[in-house]
Target: Major facilitator superfamily (MFS) profile domain-containing protein
Amino acid sequence: MAWIASVAQLGYAVGLLFFAPLGDTVDRRRLVTTLTLVTTAALVASALAPGTGALAVAVFVASAGTVVPQLLVPLVAERAPPRVAPAMSPP
Model:
């Protein structure tokens, strides 16, 4: 059962690898909404999982979808008023 934590870490890494760059090419707001809904569904599925295999799949999907905070920072920066935006950008 301890390997489920490794599956979660792998899912998060896959999410960073695929979804973070995807935020540069598609509408971030829609991507954040979709990932939030997918993560919610995966967490419900993990709570109802009948076995460890189903739990592992649900945890992987949920972990991959938890990259939303990495997408929110650029989303907020692009929606900030022009006088605030330079203060939000990195030095």
Notes: The chain has five helices and no strands. The chain has a mean pLDDT of 87.
